[in-house]
Specification:
Shape: globular
Largest sheet: 7 strands, mixed
Number of helices: 0
Mean pLDDT: 97
Radius of gyration: 13 Å
Distance between the termini: 34 Å
């Protein structure tokens, strides 16, 4: 099970930290991903982190602004989002394998 939280309304230039709490699988061995989706568009991959947390990759659209991290003692993966822009507005999802969370809404607006 994957449960996202932390979404909110934030002004442009602001920051948010999303959390994905995981259970029911071998978390520390699992690559974890964040995706996002806006209405009428395909879901967009945002970031990935390896099981041990020693390797991360990012979409060009968020590189340098977002940071993915994980705590394998708590089975949690984070997405720290800084310098937020209106185009970051979306529902953000956590994913591993074929399993998705239900998402958390991030709205960037003044």
């Amino acid at each position: 099970q994957l449960v996202e939280s932390g979404g909110d309304l934030v002004q442009p230039g602001g920051s948010l930290r999303l959390t994905c709490a995981a259970s029911g699988f071998d978390f520390s061995r699992s690559h974890m991903h964040w995706y996002r989706q806006v209405p009428d568009k395909e879901r967009e991959w945002v970031a990935r982190i390896s099981g041990p947390g020693d390797s991360t990759t990012y979409a060009d659209s968020v590189k340098g602004r977002f940071t993915i991290s994980r705590d394998n003692t708590k089975n949690i993966v984070y997405l720290q989002m800084n310098s937020l822009r209106s185009e970051d507005t979306a529902v953000y999802y956590c994913k591993t394998g074929n399993h998705w969370g239900r998402g958390t809404q991030v709205t960037v607006s003044s």
